[in-house]
Amino acid sequence: MLASESLGVRSMAVEVEACGTKILIDPGAALGPKRYGLPPDEIEIARLAELRELIRKRLRTAEIVFITHYHFDHYSPDWAGDLQGKLLFIKDPVRNINRNQARRAGEFIERLIRAGVRWEVAEGRRIELLGGEIVVSGPLWHGPEARFGCVVSVAVREGGTTFLHSSDVSGPVLEEAVDFILTQRPDILFVDGPSTYLGPRFGLKALEVARANLLRILREVSPRNLILDHHLLRDLYWRRWAEPLFEAAEGRGVQVVSGAEFSGKPETLLEAERKRRKLRK
Ligand SMILES: [Fe+2]
């Protein structure tokens, strides 16, 4: 786990090594521009710089790179040149995309062309590794609403062990994202939990559906590790919301953890704590 909300920034950047191949998923990190009406403070800005440097360093040695969609917490346009010589798979820049991301994808591709970087569309791909494989989902909606366009999920398999990265599926709240997870049967699932911090703005019903879907995954797949992070970890009280998951995990040998916990690093929800830090000053 390179960066995520539980490590203090908006991101789902992950490095996976499978079958001797270094794979990097979502090389990007950003800060919430406004939270509680407050801009990021110097603590968050410093953490962002530190983690972006780490991601960029790992990007240099990665052989295969995935960009699951065109939000700045998942890719970095200014690092286009660093992608040279790598096998690069990007979310389809033209189909199943909203206007804003299509514009960004177009600009990114111009940068890739200028840097002489080749890329391939990620959707639905199966990439063979020596003793394993990478399976990419089809287009999956970014949360409960169509207006944010689509993302792709990436499953990396080495022998009988599967790691699945499912960015920005907000729960997962929709059936297609759940289906991909149920089909791939991950041992380690890194999934974007829903935006509980938005409450009714996300949709109270959608939050219920997301939790029911996670419970279903937990019961039907029983992954060794269920890593919840990203949107859900913008909420200081996420563990309270996830209580039924912790209960269901008990006795099934499932560990429900944040990205920081999984990586053995201290959990620092810097965005969610922004107001507290401000009040302490
Ligand atoms: Fe995101």
TrEMBL record:
Domain Metallo-beta-lactamase residue range list: 22-230
InterPro entries: Metallo-B-lactamas, RibonucZ/Hydroxyglut_hydro, UPF0173_UPF0282_UlaG_hydrolase, UPF0282_hydrls
A Pfam family it matches: Lactamase_B_2
Highest taxon in the source lineage: Bacteria
HAMAP family associated with the record: UPF0282
Protein name: Metallo-beta-lactamase domain-containing protein
